[in-house]
Structures are given as structure tokens and as C-alpha cells.
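Hi everyone,

Forwarding the result from last night's run.
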Amino acid sequence: MLLSLIFIVSTLLFTFWIGLLFTTYFQCKIENWTLVFFLGFSVVTVLSSFLSIWLALNSTVILILLLCLILFSALQLKALYKKGISILSNSSLDRTSSLLAIAFAFILATGMSNAIGYYDTGLYHMQNIKWIEQYPVIPGLGNLHGRFAFNSHFFLSSALFNVEFEWLDQSVIMYPLNASCVLALVIYLIQLLKKNGSNVFSALYLCSLALIFILYPFWVNTPSPDIISAVLIVFTIFYVFNQKNKSIKQFQALILIVVCAITIKLSNAFLVLVLIPFYLGLKTSLTNKQWIASFTLILIVIAPFLTRNYYLSGYLVYPIASLDMYNVDWKIPLANVVEEKSLIKWWARLPGVKNAEELNLALIEWLPIWWAKKSIAFKLLLMTNAFLPFTLLIKNERIKRMSLFVVILLVNLIFWFISAPDPRFIHGFLIVGSAIVVYSFFSFLPKSIFNSASYSKATLISIGLILVTSVFTVDMKLENWLIPSPVHENTIITYENNFKYFVPIEDTRCYNSTLPCMPEMDESVLMRTQNIMHGFYRNVK
């Protein structure tokens, strides 16, 4: 746990440093440390996406990037120091807030120290990052495993931050980036709670804190794009809602973060709508030069994403088969693309049922099965969000400010339910929706309830509950107090087409096995040449 805590905090500070350097060089007057942090995360993600086209993101590349970072920092040392001190002084926490943040940090570190149990991490997350660390983008990599073609850019930034070492003849791998981003969001919410502790708004942020604690300590040890997606959704919505003095630089920073979120997971596309209320709140309109700069920024983020899609799958955006613009030999066959897209839909509706015919079931047939398989926590979240439409009827000026956000949440919920109702695709929006409903309920209570001491009492109670419930919610193992649990190793068997590859025996999870590893034997997958960097294709004849 202690080692995990060190890497979580180090990653948080390092990412903030990058954001600080970026805002200093481009003279962005941004004083919110959390926005600077997520801006730094976005810069790292975009930079790694460009580099990955030509280079493996290995230790050599990381060392060069670190040296460049130190050099650029040295050239702007005075400005960096001044700006850093200004931002941190404006973001300081009192004793109670600090205790709450420290409690969350320890719980996240405990969760990160446990054995990785998330199925998808063993299935393809680890392998994807391993490919990124050892090779530049591989043409037709999606032919080995369809999940490799989804091209989540979070795996690129995770490759720069992950830590791997041998401990007692066992391999230990840590992915601290998710935990650092969750901690950054938690501190931001604590600051909002501190700021609004004497009024009903405290309910909005305390509810969000509670839900984050319930959902994420269990699996922050994974490089799952679902966690960072939820984090970016919650942060962006609350930042837009709370920012009174809106500037064009802030708007452009949010554009970078939102578009970066879309390259992490396509289901984050609805986050673009959250930029509308921020734009409408700008005191001055964007000039032609500023619009050009904004669209250039979008292009810089999107260009490597589309390029990587082209190489990984042969499609512009995988698995959207309609965007079929190329005829390259490594292109994933259309039948496989359709099957992959269908799998997302039927697994979201009926997890565990691998039958395309189930997609034809009527709503009344699959909905009861879908509902029965969901956790109690998710059911409560969804039922709470069912009250969102009623918040639009409340005649309260502050709640009316949220009406546009409520509409955006409802539109996203409807689209999610129709397309692929998997809980992990909607967590971020459900957290915000639940918080708005809770806040709306508290708005009916007498204002006398919310006095100057309410914040301290609420936070102290929260700390107590977190520390007590953590014993039951997070599996604390004594052997993990210093070093995290080693990664699971599946037994593998070797197969050969025109190249040697490995297949796990126990199930379809390769974990950290030697490359190339496939979930199952497939004789149709072949290497394009004798050089693995030239990629793979499928012989469909």
C-alpha cells in the first residue's frame, strides 16, 4: 500500500507539473489547479498518441521526455514557480479537508495494492499496453484481438506511467494513473464542498464523493478507460457549472480535455454538449483567430486518433463499419467488425449470453433479465436518476441553472439505454445525475439547517464513515501494506501459423504474457511479413 501511495501522489504531482508548464508557455491565465492537472493529463495523452505512431513508448522515450520536461522547466523556472505558488495558494485545504483527502488517498492506495481482478484487464488491457511499450502502432493489430482495435488513448498515457518490477520471483505491475485522476477529482470535490459548506450545495458534492468512494476503490488498480471517463465527465460538468468568471482560454482548455476524453472512449462524445453552457456564459465572442485556434486544437487531438485507427483496424473509426474508406490488406474483415459491434450491444443487454439472436428479443423480454443481473448499487443509482425529469419542474433559481445539464444527462441516458446499456458506460453521468436529484431534495429543507458548522460536521462524519466502511469494502491484506499483489499469470500454450503465438489455457485472458498472445487459437491470422512491426492480416479465403 505504501508503495502504491507513493506512485499515486508522484503521478498526480508530475501530471500537474506538465499542466503547469503547458499553461505557462502558452500564457493561459488558469488558476484552478484541477483544471491544470487534467490539462496536463490531456497533453500527455495527445503527445503519447503522436509518438506511438513512430516509436515504442519504452523507458528510453520516457527518459528523453523527462529530460525535455526538465529543460523546458529550467528555461521558465521563475514563471513556473510564481504561477505554481499562486495556483496552490488559491487551492489550499483546511485541516478537516486535508484529513478527508488523505483518507481517500489511503483507501485508493489500498485498492491499488490488491490483486487485479477486473476481467478486461487480463483480457486485453495489459496486452494492449505491452504492445504500446514494445512497438509503435502495428498495422492490423486488431486481427489478433478485436479489442486492440478500439484504440483507447488512455492505454497510451498509462504506458508512460505504469511501473513493473520483480518482487520475490513474481511480477508486480502498477497502473497509478487512474487512482491519481480519481484523487484529483476527490480533492476538487472537497474544495467545492468547503466552498459551499454553509449552504445546500454541499449536498451536491458530498453525494458525488460518496458515490466515487463506493464505485472506484475496488478497481483503481486497473488501467480501465471506464474510470478515467467517469472522472473527466464529473469534473467537466461540475467545473462548467461552478465557474463564474469564464474565459476563452478556459474554454479552449475544456475543448482539449473533452476531445481527449472522446479519444479515450467514444461513448464520451455526449460530453461535448457540456461545453455549450460554458460557451454561452462567455462575456465576449470568439474572434476568427480564436475559432481557428480552437479547431486547430481539435485537429491536433483527433489526427493521431484517426491515424492509429487506420493502422490498427483499417477503418477510420472502429467499429463503425460505415466509415469504410480504405482497402488495405491488414483491414479487419467486415464480418468481424459487425460481430464486434454486435457483441458490445448484446453483452450490454444480456451479459454472459453470446448469441447474436438475442439481439432480436423485444424490450419486454430482455429488460427483466438485464435488470436482474445488475448490482444493488447500480439499481439505486439508476432509480435515483429516474427522478431527474422532475427536477426541471422545481421553481428554484439555482436548480434552474442546472436545467441544461439535466437535459444533457437525460439525452445521454436515453441514448445509452437504446444503444448499449452497460453500467460502466454511464457511471460518470449517473454520479452527476444522482447528485442533482439529492441536491434538489435538500433544496426543500429549511435554510436554517445549513449553518456555518455544517461543513465541518459533514466532512468529519464522512471521514469516519469512510475509514469504518473501508474495512468492509476494500479487501485489506497485511502482505500488501508495502508491496502490491503480483499479477496473475495464466498458463499458456504455443501455436504456430506463419508465426509463433501464445494462447492461455485456463480462459481467454493473456494478462502479461509474452507477445503475441491471442485469446484463442485462430489459424486465419497471419503475419504480413517476417517482421512483426509490419503487422497482421486475416486470410478469409
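Strands lie at 163-167, 170-174, 492-496, 500-504, 525-527, 536-538.

Cheers,
N.
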